[in-house]
Predict the 3D structure of the following.
Amino acid sequence: MSNINGKVYAMNAITPMKPWKTSVLKTIFFALEHIKPLQQDLINLSFIEFARWVSVPRNGFPYLGNGQAREELKYDYLLFFSNFNGTWNQYIDAFSAVLSKGLDLVWRWSEKFPGSVPVTLFKEYIARVQFDTDYYFTAYPHATANDLKSAHIVQASFDSLIERTGKCTPEEFGDAYLNFVIQVQAYLGDTGQAPIVF
Amino acid sequence: MSKLNQTDIQGFVLRGYNLPYARYVFLHFEDASRARALIGRLLPVITTGQLWDNGKPRSTVNIAFTHRGLAALDLPEATLLSFPVEFLQGMKSRAGILGDTGVNAPEHWDRLWHANAVHAWLGINAQTPAALDARCSEIQALVQETGGAIELASQDAAAIMDEGKPTTREHFGYTDGFGNPDYLGVERSTQPGQGKLMPDGSWAPLATGELLLGYADEAGELPVAPIPHILASNGTFMVYRKLHQNLASFRAYLDEHAAIYGGGREKLAAKFVGRWRDGTPIELSPDGPDQAIVHDPNRNTNFTYGADSEGTRCPIGGHIRRVHPRDAFGFNGRLIDRRRITRRGLPYGPPLPENEPASDGDDRGIVFMALNASISRQFEFVQQQWIEYGNDAHQGNDKDMLMGNHGGKGKFVVQGDRSATNPPFLCNHLPNFVELRGGDYFFLPSITALGMIALGVVDPR
Amino acid sequence: MPNQNGTIYGLTILSPIINDEKATPSHDLQIRSYLASMPVGEDSPFALAPGTHLARLVVMDDVVFVGAPSIEEHLQSKYLVFESNCDGDLDGYLSGLAAAAPQDLDAIWSHCVGYPGAARPQAFVDYMKACQIETTFFFAAVNNKSVPETLRALQTQRAVADFIASHQGMEPARLQAEFVHFATRLRSAPLPKPGSPASPRPIKTGGRNE
């Protein structure tokens, strides 16, 4: 299945927007970018590796001449690309459960968006506006966003321990090592294969 | 919301009977009209959710059907197709999704499950073995009279006794029976910690629709349900799994690792699960069991993990923390409200005192049943994402210590601190302590729905 | 600036696909067919060229019609979407791709309007930039670690878990010696290749990375 590589899922979605609404949306994104606490929920829902929204105005589709026909569109389009861990259902369930206000703020400007609660209608809408990935690459298919964060914590602690190792007595090392284990003990989950999608 | 009509809901759904003896009988239907006649004869004896004002009955009877069973009863095609996909497929087909591979794979299950012939489950619970046998004979008589079914096999189960009195212990020695959720409208003794967490820290019952079809669920809508509404309402889905327990492997593993664990044997056992073997939550009492907490319904499930984010009291991968994360995922627990299940079940096979030698080959384990409105969203999710996997708990691919399908690999981390009796500790080369020996997905209809099935008057829209 | 989040660059490129009714199969189908056979693991062009965390290629057939009362409209051309989450600067990343995997790039983008070929690196970079759309909002869970740093950390995490497990209860002098030895070995271990999948699983999912 080309939407999935290892533990990460590539979702693509496109929704039409009446052009006057695009500037409203851009203001909202600007606020989201610069008012960091608004992003906190997104960070805490820790299964997104990378995600982006791309607003394409109706005359913004690249035009390179050479016989290409110009686009003549009435709507602007909002593209959404997400790289997330877990299943499609799990992802949308989670967003609908805890981030519905934020989602609504972004997508209410898109035509016929039904709202992110209740979740069944929301899933139907996403299914309609989603299109499938042809090729998906990840440098670390066996790791989720959580695994990555854990790994960086372990690396940092490990580097600190190495620095001290040469200069201390065995007793001091034993102590430093215990501290090290306590620092990393919550971050040692195995990486590997994803469960089967359902 | 309006009160539930308890006489229309099978009692098994609304409460654990706490009757110490059970027999689960599996039936196969050969002829639709004879089978419907049998259901019609069984209908008056099916135990409903009506409260027992005159004390517990001597025995209870409940019934549920697989999708093949509903098809064998000649329900209309459109109705059959309107059931959720996982129920249509049955648990065996979902083995990959559930992690039922290796020793848990269907080819190792009891013969009962091999030919996909199980159409119905009859759950009979009783106060005494004599009452159990008497009730089963009555039912067998009905089966004979109507010629409505063939009995494929049955599974006995019973509470482990302590000097003649039933306990809620299972074979590894853990006291079980905590943690079933509270639902709106379902009358039972509610306890703080069983429902969903509210922003002010109190606990409220879960939406009825997390357990029963036909009612609003936690997402503010009616859960996906088969049509017509009247067939689905007041019904629910049941997952049945026979879990063999490798008692020898468990005791050996515990002994071997307790010898090098600074907290000692009982503490290590407690760390696997998140409760001391007597039931005390380790989160509330990290240093030792405390019967006062166990017997206080206001305390024995009343805790959160917010103050224990590093897992030094209850390990992050501990069993009860995996299956009911409470506030551990943030967002005031909202990510887990739709992942709760109601558990029923009893141990099977002879209990063995600690000092007697055990063998993995002995036939003992637990019959596990889960009740939920959506098998895929609730049971399957918990089984796949929280038991056989650990990403939501930030534990990567690590599996549940006791229930995981380890195959000799994998690990379990006991987070600790600098004290000698609570050190960090890693358990690896994990054997399968529990093995799956069979099971399936069942639909537990309301009394009304049973009547319609018996009369053959189910019409799709 | 919205294309960048920390040290990660969010590249979004929409390349118009040549619309030629006489081509059989059509250019978009040829791209799809090539993508279906291109390796997604260590041999991917995105593994051979440096800097790609996650990237996707999608043939976007058309805009979506969400239903009345919305107006139905259609694109004149199909577009090849290239979405990449990569390290560092744009020019360096694109040049790196052109240098490491010119055949794959040509096989894919030769079906797009105005593509100059990977053999002319500056023209290639200019072409990609001409097709670039500004990312409006870009979220990254980890925005300050490069691909090699990430692969190194994952390797360390696994090795550390194994070390801790096999050294429980060891007395300090021996522990210290073994740790020093372990750290040296780990430091000199080759970096895992980007895109390497996990070890084979006993059951097939049917996913392309099996």
Remarks:
- DSSP finds 14 helices and 14 strands in chain B.
- Residues 98 and 222 of chain B are 25 Å apart (CA to CA).
- Residues 6-165+206-241+439-455 of chain B form one domain.
- Chain B has a mean pLDDT of 95.
